[in-house]
Amino acid sequence: MLKYLAKRFLEMIPTLFGITLISFFIIHLAPGKPTDALSEMNPKMTPEARERLEKLYNLDKPVIVQYGMWLKRIVKLDFGESFSMDRRPVMQKIWDTKQPLLERRLFITFMLNLIAMIIILAIAIPIGISSATHQNTLYDKITTTTVFLGFAMPSFWLALLLMMLFGVYLDWLPISGLKSMSYDSLSVGGKVLDRLKHLVLPMFVAAFGGLAADSRYMRSSMLEVVRQDYVTVARAKGLPEKTVIYRHAFRNALLPLITLVGLSVPGLIGGSVIFENIFGIPGMGQLFFNGVMTRDYSLIMAILTIGAFLTLIGNLLADIGYMFADPRIRTGR
Amino acid sequence: MGMASSSTLIVILILMLLTPACKQKVKLPETAADLQTADDKPAYGDAIIEGVIGEPSNLIPMLASDSASHNVAGLIFNGLVKYDTDLSVIGDLAESWDISKDGLIITFHLRKGVKWTDGVEFTAGDVMFGYKTIIDEKTPSAYKEDFLQVKKAEVLDNYTFRVTYEKPFAPALTSWTSLVILPKHLLEGKDITKSDLVRNPVGLGPYKLAKWVSGQELILESNRDYFEGRPYIDRYIYKVIPDSATMFLVLKTGEVDTMGLTPIQYTKQTDNAFFKNSFRKYRYPAFSYTHLAFNQKHPWFRDKRVRQAMSYAIDKNEIVDVVLFGLGTPATGPYVPNTWPYNPNVRKYDFNPEKAIELLKEAGWQDRDGDGILDKDGRPFSFTILTNAGNNLRKNTATIIQSRLEKIGVKVEIRTVEWSTFVNQFIDKKRFEAVLLGWSIGLDADQYDIWHSSKTKEKELNFISYNNPEVDQLLEKGRRTFALEERKKAYFRIQEILADEVPYIFLYVPDATPIVHARIKNIKPTAIGISYNMPKWYVPKPLQRHTMVQ
Q1: CB-based contact B329:B337 (threshold 8 Å)
Q2: What is the nearest CA distance from B176 to chain A, expressed in angstroms?
Q3: What is the mean pLDDT of the segment spanning B292-312?
Q4: How distant is the alpha carbon of residue B19 from its chain centre?
Q5: Sorting pLDDT into bands at 50, 70 and 90, what band is B164?
Q6: What is the number of alpha carbons within 13 Å of residue A180 lying toward its C-beta?
Q7: What is the least distance, in Å, from the CA of A2 to any CA of chain B?
Q8: CA distances (Å), A93 to each of A110, A148, A172, A273, A288, in order?
Q9: Helices A255-263, A188-226: inter-axial angle, 10-degree rounding
Q10: How open is the CA angle B195-B201-B207, to the nearest 5 degrees?
Q11: What integer is the mean pLDDT of B324-330?
């Protein structure tokens, strides 16, 4: 097992190297430079001043040299400084140690996505199973229609509708940000409740949109499993249907979902631009989007590298999860 | 735990959260009378919450390039001089100044007893320090150019600062704004870009930064020792809400007091009793204009008659009505109407498609093959209007222009490109036929960089390659004299030439349309907007909403 893990880790290094190299070059292929924000359409900017700026940030060197410089830093886990005008270290922007944990971008995005994922799984798995066991009944058709409605509905539109209803007309829920203006004056319980209230709408919208895929996966893999011989055997032995489904079929039906969950690990830190913009959530999606728009090379690279690393880790976790769930893999047969 | 019970738990949780908690909710006034208080006297206290799309990047003005940063920094720092409501220049940190007869030397006499918010006195040394910092080549500032014109800067004593220029330079006086006022005692010998002041500035303006939570909010507190008197409103809070539709909903719930409205929000969505009672809307021309610019190197657009024809074919009033819901003014040149450089008597192009067709015919454009599109030398008249993506007003404007030109037999394609690509691949390389863009107009009348023929290189602003020797001369004249009448003459003539030659079709000057909660009093709209006297805004005691959290 340990040998296997070590081997997998070693394999990651060249993969990561390849990913960063390709990303670095592609980012530099995009027209524009990080210094544009200062110099674009700006009468006060002479060509000399622009060259000075580019020199200051080493943008005048060949891309491969810049990559080398970046790589040298990255080995020390230093993601460098952001190219934007605040010149803060990139890590500070992603994980601001000066702020309480709850206000750090990476934490915010990670927590929101994790909660959303848990909600989605908690609802999608039962829906998937019951749809499979009640295949082609009215119930199956209703759930299918509902989850696809969520899948098809533009999230920004649904979000605005819900904001109108719960925020403006009913005045039950806050509609923007993560906490109220009066947050600092609240008691501990009040603070928790305040934050939870701010999460209701975003979580609902995220979950409603994400239900379709997971519940359909669960349904189809369950349908496949219940047709297997061993399930027929279990039923023939006279086991109650509940035991057949939950003891025997369920575990095997979960396998494809493990892969799915493993693959969504990098998504946990990705964040979503549209979603975060609508709800005014200062997460990674906004940060990354603005980084791309302003050609903030070091910030983009940092987020891509972390994302790539997590994707590989996610894959590894999925494989390990398989081992536990499926004895055939463990024994290498 | 079974699946069913966990789902039930979630449902219960959601229901719990939906029950209105007993928190102190701001009661929105039912009638206008609620906001008419007998006790309408100025009072200290309360807070204003402004909704903003983006947060600042850097609170040291000379390092910032985005408007969000400058807006916030504008409450924290002051300049030596500032613009009065009629666009004349008045003193700010400088009590007075003298300009030598030849216009080369400006001597500023500074106010005495002004203190930085850390208690240290502001002196001419701070101005000198700021000047040296901005011209330092290690300072990545976008505003160097005006200061590189200075030949010599001297501190005569603690309250007198003198600068000498190579040549007379009219925009020089107004370049001495908050860009170059920095606390020397905190920054001397430090790398300014890495200084703590970038995110935690020490200024001497009406407000000081109390708290900044990235991506969420900035809280400014009033500077009680502000040299023009303590501001009435205790806190100015910027709440970051990146989506304007969401921001509007937040305004409705009372969590935000002020924001900039879109034309449709201003005309349609706030036209009801609730908004009329609780809010006041303001409207004044913004300092910018939108235009359609023709590449002067393009063989078709080299012909003045073609450009004039386009002007006749486009109905500016229609664009203002449809795109801006009437919230703007048709533009006739590169200045805002009713400001001193604006010339009202230039050639106007009223909507006249017949005249357009006639002019195009003179220039050799006719529909010879009967396909409905004009042609010349066997080539149909079709060109592309390029604009940047993500700006709906511009896209809609382009669409209206497209339909109008189609009617006179000119085929138009519209292409929108992401901003960085737009600038680097198309504008800088002059790869365009016509561009739909807007310019912000500085408060000084000098527009040398946009129209002078020496400014046509890559990355410079005369990207349409406009070249007119008379305009070149007038631009020189306009920036080399301080005499207002002389300058006015030069800029009036420039507008006449531009109106005749149509290098741009000046489309419209949009209105700025802020909305502010009605409890906030003493807002007086002027040509430069409403925020100039913000420290003098107040909320009468009975109407105050937000108390300080101690």
Answers
A1: yes
A2: 14
A3: 96
A4: 43
A5: very high
A6: 24
A7: 33
A8: 15, 37, 33, 16, 11
A9: 140
A10: 175
A11: 96
What is the DSSP pairing of strand B382-388 with strand B411-417?
A: parallel
Whether residue B234 contacts residue B47, with contact meaning beta carbons closer than 8 Å, is answered with yes
> Token pair 């210094």 is at which residue?
A35
Best mutation target, A85, A185, A276, to test chain B (most B CBs within 10 A): A85
Give the minimum alpha-carbon distance from B9 to chain A in angstroms, rounded to a whole number: 11
In what side-by-side order are the strands of the sheet with B94-99?
Answer: B94-99, B105-110, B160-165, B150-157
CB contact under 8 A, B18 and A88: no
Put simply, the answer to whether A105 touches B144 (Cβ < 8 Å) is no
Is the minimum CB–CB distance between A116 and chain B shorter than 8 Å?
Answer: no
Contact between chains at B69 and A96 (C-beta distance less than 8 A):
no
Provide the residue count of chain A: 333
Burial of B37 per CB tally in 10 Å (0-12, 13-18, 19+): middle
Average pLDDT, stretch B23-40? 54
E strands, B61-148, are 81-83, 89-91, 94-99, 105-110
Kindly identify which residue of chain B lies nearest to residue A35, measuring between CA atoms. Answer: B140
What number of helices (H) and strands (E) belong to chain A?
A: 18, 0
Which residues of chain A are within 8 Å of residue B199 when distances are taken between CB atoms? 86, 88
**Residue B137 has which token pair?**
């080549």
Query: Please, what is the end-to-end C-alpha distance for chain A in angstroms?
Result: 15
**Partner-chain contact A105 B215, CB within 8 Å:** yes
Picking from B25, B246, B447, B517 by the largest number of A CB atoms within 10 A of its own CB, the best residue to mutate is B246
Residue found by looking up tokens 């390092």 in the block:
B63
Question: According to the model, what pLDDT value does residue A331 have?
Answer: 59
pLDDT of residue A43: 65
> Cβ distance B452 to B475 under 8 Å?
yes
DSSP letter at B328? E
Q: Which of A31, A276, A286 sits opposite B425 (nearest CB)?
A: A31
* Average pLDDT value for chain B: 90
CB A105 within 8 A of CB A282: yes
CB-side neighbour CA atoms (13 Å) of A287: 31
B341 CB burial (10 A radius; 0-12, 13-18, 19+): buried
Q: Choose among B6, B424, B449: nearest Cβ to A43.
A: B449
